[in-house]
From TrEMBL:
Keywords: DNA-binding, Nucleus, Transcription, Transcription regulation
UniProt cross-references to SUPFAM superfamilies, sorted A to Z: DNA-binding pseudobarrel domain (SSF101936)
Highest taxon in the source lineage: Eukaryota
Taxonomic placement: Eukaryota, Viridiplantae, Streptophyta, Embryophyta, Tracheophyta
Cell location: Nucleus
Protein name per UniProt: TF-B3 domain-containing protein
One example GO MF annotation: DNA binding
One GO cellular component term: nucleus
Length: 192
């Protein structure tokens, strides 16, 4: 599934930083940005541009000399950078997600139970992810999305306070599930 460029622009940024692509060097990350978000920045970053291209790069987590150390040259090659270029990054999310699993709401849990699925394909606005299903036995009869859910949340910046909808493509029993973000309630830092 490709990224919808118009949707990327609408997402609110938690932070911004500018870097300069210096030919033959790693991608430098602004130290102020690295310090401000030190506790939530992960080593693996998913980058998306306004054209819908997705890139995975790796951050060294060093607040003294913060850099994108792996994947930067591929990024430079992809965009055809020759020489030095200024690049603006908008930081959209942290790893504050639901956790490794989520219990599905009752009506949807019953749909999954009736379909006898062992896995479902979650279709998000950035990427599709396969999730395994755990079905509890009586009396609770709950259905839980396990392996893959955390990755889906991380890729799509879904957090515990977000409201989401699970939607099926058609009325036939299908393991293809569309996930829609209904409302975001992300914390904004007050501007000084």
């Amino acid at each position: 599934m490709s990224v919808i460029p118009e949707e990327i622009v609408k997402l609110s940024a938690k932070g911004l930083f500018t870097t300069v692509n210096i030919h033959g060097e790693n991608g430098h990350v602004d130290r102020t940005f690295a310090i401000e978000f030190e506790n939530e920045l992960e080593e693996e970053w998913t980058l998306s541009d306004s054209q819908g291209n997705i890139h995975i790069v790796y951050y060294n987590k060093d607040i003294l000399c913060p850099q994108i150390v792996y994947g930067w040259s591929r990024l430079s090659d992809f965009y055809g950078f020759k020489g030095d270029h200024n690049i603006l990054f908008r930081y959209l999310s942290s790893k504050q997600v639901f956790g490794g699993y989520v219990d599905l709401p009752s009506p949807f849990a019953e749909y999954i139970r009736r379909g006898k699925f062992k896995k479902v394909n979650l279709h998000g606005w950035l990427q599709d992810v396969e999730c395994t299903i755990f079905k509890s036995r009586n009396p609770s009869r709950s259905v839980t999305l396990c392996s893959g859910w955390k990755q889906f949340c991380r890729l799509h910046s879904i957090r515990e306070d977000d409201k989401i909808i699970f939607e099926c493509y058609n009325k036939k029993s299908s393991s293809d599930i569309r996930v829609l973000l209904l409302m975001t309630c992300h914390y904004k830092r007050p501007s000084a």
